[in-house]
Amino acid sequence: MHPAPSLILFTSLSGLGFGLFAYLGLLGGGLTGWPAFFEYALAYGFSSAGLLSSLFHLGNPQRAWRALSQWRSSWLSREGVLALATLLVFAPQAISQIWGPGDLLLLGEIGALLALVTIGATAMIYAQLKTVPRWHHPAVPVLFYLYALSGGALLFGQAIAAALFLVLLGLVQTSYWIIGARRFAESGSSMHSATGLGRTGSLRLLERPHTGASYLTKEMMFQVARRRAVALRRLFWAFGIAMPLVIVVQNLGGTMNWIVALVALACHYVGVIASRWLFYAQAEHVVSLYYGNEVSA
Amino acid sequence: MTQLPASTERALGLAIDLDTCVGCHACVIACKEWNTANYGAPLSDQDAYGSNPVGTFLNRVHTFEYLPDDPQTLSNGDQSAFQVTHFPKSCLHCQDAPCVTVCPTGASYKRSEDGIVLVNEEACIGCGLCAWACPYGARELDAEAGVMKKCTLCVDRIYNDNLPEIDREPACVRTCPAGARHFGDFADPESKVSQLVRERGSITLMPEMETRPVNAYLPPRPKTQACGETSSNQVAAKAPEQPNPQGFLAWLDGALAKLEAGASGSSK
Asked: Of chain A residues 63-92, which have a CB less than 8 A from chain B?
């Protein structure tokens, strides 16, 4: 897929924001005053920035509100509804913690649950697509959770959780890259299944339907970034996992200084962008079979 | 409403004859022409007269080359038996259309009365997810209007009382000079398209995607003779026999033959 910056920012920023909301709802009830203000500002800031950047991907963003209507069948609609519900549920909780009497009964827990389900719904927008075998795998929601919980832990200053989830993230992401490379070949889709023509192995595209580009070739048969996969994986390992892990491990004993935590988060986010770029760029759509792109695993 | 109807009263669609299609792309052009002037936003082009023209089309013709899977060509193993098939591709109006259920706004829907899959452009936000959910590349986001375009089965022709009855079929079917495209109701076992499928069988595109397409692709008929035999052997057999040369030409022919034999002898 064409790795649109709006989508990379949407999934990575909202992952951070809703990850932090999960920690705030479950463990942040004791925060009051300025510390509560800063944490909620970060959570609202990242999640809203993510949601807003998703609007830039739309052909007609002025009608985005309509996307809240089809939650019965559409994961994208569910994601929107859940995200807004999370933001709304946390509003009285945040106000009460910052300026009022503090933690409100059960509101944090409900909000945390909604935040966690939102992260799952974001992942399902991709994991539901049979047409992209690399995405259509249970590892995709697991990864989206690990990204959100690693980033959220860094933002919340939870050194132990951050260390644990960063190690898990590194392992699962690397395994997923290995699994992902075989997904298209294992999907059962081929030029033969796409056309029903000829003896297997003898079929080739003689002529494309058009000599230039099209929406389909630009959007679904993106080739550029795939060549840089090795470099992007190294970036993910160095910035996304190793550097924040070193910082976090040095602070396992006490609470993390907020400047240190911010540096760790900044490093981590560079790695997240690198791997998310690959997530989109390496996604191969089965429609490429009609354009002669035989299984490339 | 993006939930699919449990069943549809009729199942309108196309039967596309891969044996008859000559790959002229007339259906592509007729489709572009009709759908630019009628239902919904026009099918726009960008840089139409420049060096990188791009545009929205609802129907595209691919061309494939392959060795046919029939016993005759399998047994002779002749590599010259390759066959070419033109492959028109547009929305298949699937019964389990994944493009409909992923739509977050309800803009994408399948009609319960005739099974046509349509986009309500007033409600489409242009997120592109339906195009991603479609395995067949049937949907294209129009760069000008920012809404998703797809085959409407010419819903504004087939029910249009202002048109002469002969024109009340999709533009691609009406224009096809080879008669390779047929329009009808697949839910009616006596319709022309149902009969065609009974006679000829049909190819399901990407059955592993479990989309249950309504459109049918009639497979290329097995050739009575392998292409290779027809082209080379028959032409050679029909070529006039060389008369035996007389006089000077006979001497020259003999001399050349000796030279040929000598040359091949010495080279051994």
From this structure: 63-64, 66-70, 72-77, 80
Q: ipTM, 2 decimals?
A: 0.91
CB of A259 less than 8 A from some CB of B? no
Query: Do A124 and A80 form a contact (C-beta atoms < 8 A)?
Result: no
A13-48 pLDDT, tens per residue?
Answer: 999 999 999 999 999 988 999 999 999 999 999 999
Q: Do A290 and B136 touch (CB under 8 A)?
A: yes
Q: For helices A139-156 and A33-55, give the axis angle rounded to 10 degrees.
A: 140
At the topology level of CATH, where does A5-58+68-187+214-291 sit? Formate dehydrogenase/DMSO reductase fold (1.20.1630)
pLDDT digits (tens, 9 = 90+) for B112-147: 999 999 999 999 999 999 999 999 999 999 999 999
- DSSP for residue B121: T
Please provide the DSSP assignment of A185-213 as one string: HHT---HHHHH--SSTT--EEEE-S-SS-
Residue A107 half-sphere exposure toward CB, CA atoms < 13 A: 17
What CATH number was assigned to the domain covering residues B12-223? 3.30.70.20
**Closest C-alpha to B91, from B172, B208, B13:** B13
The answer to whether A198 contacts chain B (CB < 8 Å) is yes
Instruction: Note whether A126 and A138 are within 8 A (CB).
Output: no
A113-124 pLDDT per residue, tens = 999 999 999 999
